[in-house]
């Protein structure tokens, strides 16, 4: 089964900062879920980032956000993988 993570454009989500894994991190509140930013890349690398997000989405709740010049992959803070992936 293939799960495609949603792609959300800048302004369609609420950003916030929070303390996680011994430092201040970026978070997103989207559809009653809290997400942690795993990775941000330039737009020219969005295909690779989306491929990574699709792999993660097989086991975790993830979203992809886009702005004018970057894309980010985010994982739900409820995901069992969130802490493990944040330490990489």
How many domains is the backbone divided into? 1
> What is the CA-CA span between the terminal residues?
27 Å
- Architecture (CATH level 2) name: 2-Layer Sandwich
Tally the helices. Answer: 2
Structural class: alpha+beta
- Give the beta-strand count: 6
**Uncertain residue ranges:** none
SSE sequence, one letter per element: EEEEHEEH
Helix content: 10-25%
Q: Strands of the biggest beta sheet: in what spatial order?
A: 1-5-6-4-3-2
The CATH class label is Alpha Beta
Average pLDDT, all residues: 90
Largest sheet, strands/sense/barrel: 6 strands, mixed
General shape: globular
Could you say what the CATH topology is called?
Phosphorylase Kinase, domain 1
The radius of gyration is 12 Å
Q: What amount of the residues lies in strands?
A: over 45%
Write up what this structure looks like.
It is built from 2 helices and 6 strands, in the order ββββαββα. It has 88 residues and is α+β, with helices and mostly antiparallel strands. A 6-stranded mixed β-sheet has the order 1-5-6-4-3-2. The longest helix has 12 residues, at 46-57. The N and C termini lie far apart (27 Å).
């Amino acid at each position: 089964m293939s799960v495609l993570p949603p792609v959300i454009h800048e302004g369609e989500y609420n950003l916030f900062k929070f303390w996680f894994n011994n430092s201040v991190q970026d978070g997103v509140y989207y559809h009653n879920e809290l997400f942690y930013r795993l990775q941000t890349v330039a737009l020219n690398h969005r295909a690779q980032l989306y491929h990574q997000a699709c792999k993660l989405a097989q086991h975790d709740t993830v979203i992809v956000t886009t702005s004018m010049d970057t894309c980010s992959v985010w994982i739900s803070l409820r995901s069992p993988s969130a802490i493990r992936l944040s330490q990489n």
